[in-house]
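Good morning N.,

You mentioned wanting to compare the apo and holo forms, so I went ahead and generated the holo version with guanosine-5'-triphosphate. This is what I fed in:
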Amino acid sequence: MPLRSRTAVTHQDYSAKQLKLLGVYGVSLLIIFVVPLLLWQAAPTKALAQVDWLDIATEGALFVLGMCWLMVILSARPRGRVTNLLVLGLACYCLGCFLDLLDEMFVVKAVPIYNWFEKMPTPIGLVILTCGLWLWRDEQEVVNRQLRTREQFYRQHHLTDGLTLLNDAKTFELHLTRQLASHRPLGLLMLDIDHFHQVNQRQGMEEGDRLLSEVAQWLSSQLRSQDLVCRYAGDSFVILLNGAIAPLVSTMAEQLRQGIRTLGCHASVAWVLPPPREIATEYPLKTEALGLLLSLNEKMSQQKTMRGRGCLQEGSQQERL
Ligand SMILES: Nc1nc2c(ncn2[C@@H]2O[C@H](COP(=O)(O)OP(=O)(O)OP(=O)(O)O)[C@@H](O)[C@H]2O)c(=O)[nH]1
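and this is what came out, ligand included:
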């Protein structure tokens, strides 16, 4: 079955996040209770007159704030390398603050190793945190680029499809006709989700709608600002790649076909280029645009037929397993 259970994936992500949160809470509580207990055994406590309450308040506040940042990062960020670095860096920083805080309550000079150990976590944590923030900056740049593309897309085109917020087929035809009139190179690409009806059947229409919206967003984020994507019919999308020649269109087609798997589904992708100019000018532009869309549809049907045969083989193998 080419479509894996999207709900199951979401639940897996959710429980992995919960587990991570529990892990961090557990380790934090362990450190908060066990380290003072060990210190209490090994080092005398300071007399009240020796305690600097202002230091306790400021170092305690740094520790509490650090823990709050940690929780915010854990709950708000998606899983991944950047989050791991931020969490690890903040955890080390918090540990450093906590050890500093204990320093105000116990005569830690009596435990030489503590003296040495308490100085390590904060600088190490800050270095890790800096690496994490640096990578976060890179990640944010990519996200910003995607947002800019989307924003440009919204500004330039009328949104007509209520579900995906993409253009509909009619508007696409108009853009295509206009683009053909400019005689600049272009490529047309169609992406159709494989076995989409199974999502509706197995996981409900709502999940199907969500998948369509995700695919639409993902497609918009993959395109250049001069390209145009529209929802052509139920689960198929067409893309107009402005200024693109054959190698770029075929590479793009393959990248989209592979990339869509990150959304938990498979898709068939077909593409066409307009015929050479001297042939194209024999027809009215609108007819040429419709002809192109027709041949794109035909190519897609061929792909589906070929893939269908492949899927039947896969299915029968699975049944035998
Ligand atoms: N959830 C949801 N489903 C839709 C929407 N529009 C169309 N569909 C469904 O999309 C499915 C399209 O079915 P098919 O054309 O057979 O496509 P498919 O199941 O992907 O099959 P292949 O393309 O041959 O792989 C139908 O079951 C429609 O009911 C929509 O807006 N939301």
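Residues 6-42 form the longest helix (37 residues).

Happy to go through it together on a call whenever suits you.

Best,
F.
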